[in-house]
Amino acid sequence: MLDIKLIREQPELVKDALKKRQIDSVIIDDIVQLDEERRALILDVEGKKAERNSVSKEIGRMQDKTEREAKIASMRELGDQINSLDEQLKQIESRLFERLAGIPNIPDSDVPVGVDDKDNVVIRTIGEKKHFDFEPKPHWELGPELGILDFEAGVKLAGTRFYVLEGAGARLQRALIFWMLDLHIRQGYKEFYPPWMVREEIMFASGQLPKFAENLYHDYQEDFWWVPTAEVPLTGIMMGEVLDEAELPLNLTAYTACFRREKMSAGRDVRGMKRGHQFDKVEMYKYCTPETANEELDNMVADACATCEALGLTYRVLLQSTGDLSFGSHKTYDIEVWAPGCQEWLEVSSISNIGQFQARRANIKYRPADGSAPQFVNTLNGSGLGMPRTMIAVMENYQQEDGSILIPEVLKPLMGGIEVIQKE
RNA sequence: GGAGGGAUGGCCGAGCGGACGAAGGCGCCUGUCUUGAAAACAGGUAUAGGGCAACCUAUCGUGGGUUCGAAUCCCACUUCCUCCGCCA
Questions:
Q1: Which CATH number fits domain A117-421: 3.30.930.10, 3.20.20.210, 3.30.750.24, 2.115.10.20?
Q2: Which nucleotide is closest to the Cα of A53 by its C1'?
Q3: A55 strand B contact, CB < 7 Å
C-alpha cells in the first residue's frame, strides 16, 4: 500500500511509476479526487462532532430543565446529520481504500524499465555450464527411470501438476530442506515454523489479497487461506507490532509448503516438476530500517548465492525489469540455476525489497534509537531456495551416463550413506 | 462440543453513563543534584486522521446498537484463561 500523502503531493511521480510497470495511471486522478472529497467531508463532520461534544458537556451541567430539553432536542437533530455524513464518509473511504490497495509499489530508481521478464538484466553469471560427454537427460526422464519421481501417482492422487517423490528422491528433498535451514541459521537467520494456513487479514497484510485471490486456495468452511509462500506468515507474525531499532535487522527463515492455484500460468510449464500446485520452499525474511534496506538486500542475495554455490550449481543473478516486478516489490533480484537436461535457466530464488509497502498494510513499525516517532519498517523476502527447481538442477547436473545421480558433497551427511542414487 | 471468567497506553493495573485519552505503579526521556553514575526530586512520555496554525476528531479486543453524551449499558463476533466432555 502506498502512502496517500505521496499520491496527494506527488501524483506525477506515482503515475510515472505505474507507466513504467505498463499500468494505466488514470486511477491516480480518481484517487486524488476521492481524497479531496474525503477531506472535505471530514472537515464538515468533525466540526459537527466537536459541537456535539461541547454541548453535551454543557447539558451535563445544566440545571434549567426547559433549556436542557431544548439543547437535547437540537443535539438529537445534529446527531442525525452526523450519522448521515459518517455514512457518506465511510463509503468514500472504502472506495478510496479499495483503489489504494490495488496500486502496486513504486520501483526503485535503478530498476531497469521493461515490458516483461525478457527485459530483466543479467548482473553476473557464476560458473560454467557443465560439460557432458553424453546427452544429459531432463529430470522427467531421469526421475521416473530411477524410480524416485512418479508423475502418474501424483495425477492419480490429486490431478495434473502434482507428483510423488519416493525413496531416495523424497530423502534428497528432505536433505535439501534440512541443510538449507541449517545454512541460513549459520548465516544469522532465526528459524520459524509457522501455520501453513492463515486468516484473510494476514493475506491482505502481505499483499496477496484482494488482488491475487484467484491464485490462492481458500477453505470456505473455516475461512482459512493456504499460504502461497512463507513470506505470508513471516510478514503476519509482526503485524501491528512496534519493534526497537536496536533489534533490527531481524532475520527469519522458515520452511513451508507453498500452495498456488496457478490460474495465471494455465498451460505453462506443465512438463516435469517445475511448476506445481504444491511445492516446498525454504524462505528468508528480513525486517530492517529504510536506511539499511539496500545493503540487506545485497546480503540476502549473497546468502542465496552461497546456497547455490555450496550445492555446486551454475547460477546467474538478474535484476528484474519494471515489467516483471511483482505487485508489492520495490526492487527484485532473481537467481537462476542452469539445468542441463531441460536446457533451461530455472528461477530458484526471487529476492525483493518491499520497502514500506507491506509494513504499511500490516502496520509494522520500529521505534528509532533516537526516540523519535515510530516509522514503518522495510521488509525483504527471498527464497533460499525453492525445492522443486533446486531438485531439478541437482538431478540434471549430477547425472552420470548410466542414468544414476551423484549426491552433492554437502548433502551426503544427510543421506544415510547414499552417495549415488541408482536404479534399485 | 458444554460451563464460567477475562481482553484498558511500551508493560502492569484502576475505572463500570457526563470534567476520562483515561488514576496509580513500572519502564523510558529531559532537568536539578553529583567528578561520573545510582538514589532522590521536578517535568515530560500513545496512535491515526483533519487543519497554515491555535486546535479539532477518532481510538479502552473488533463490528453494530441504545443515549444529548459510552472504556462504562445492550447485541454479535474474535481471542485468551479455567473446568468438563471428546480425540490423540
A1: 3.30.930.10
A2: B69
A3: yes
